Amino acid sequence: MTQSEYIGIAFIAGLVLGALFFGGLWFTVKKAATAKNVALWFSGSSLVRTGITIVGFYYVSGGSWQRLLTCVFGFIVARYVVMWCTRPIEPKGSELKN
Fold it and tell me: Tell me: the pLDDT tens digits for 29-55?
């Protein structure tokens, strides 16, 4: 494989890691709202999400700072994608009229 193919794979891996991390955070917040032991949900979720992300960055980078940087960029892009996908939907006509 060429270096540009590795960079592309690193970006896609960053998107996947970001979707798992921020999607997991969204799920945790939704689930913790009705959970009996909120601290356990947040603690466990944080450990699992962070662990998966760090291990993913380590394996994707393969010792290359370019791949690591590209993976982190994909991770950040995924943050905005998850924010957009999980935004509250406002019904039509709900905007304030002056």
Answer: 998 888 899 999 999 999 999 999 999
All residues at 6 or more sequence positions from 19 whose CB lies less than 8 Å from its CB, including other chains: 78, 81, 82
- Answer whether residue 95 is part of any domain: no
Question: Is 70 part of any domain?
Answer: yes
Please count the other Cβ atoms lying within 10 Å of the Cβ belonging to residue 60: 24
- d(CA 73, CA 92) in angstroms, rounded, equals 34
> Is residue 90, in this structure, part of any structural domain at all?
no
In a domain, 92, yes or no: no
What's this model's pTM, rounded to 2 decimal places? 0.83
What backbone phi and psi angles, to 5 degrees, belong to 32? -70, -20
- Number of domains observed in the structure of the chain: 1
Predicted confidence (pLDDT) per residue in 56-78, tens digit: 999 999 999 999 999 999 999 99
Please give the structure tokens belonging to residue 67: 């791949």
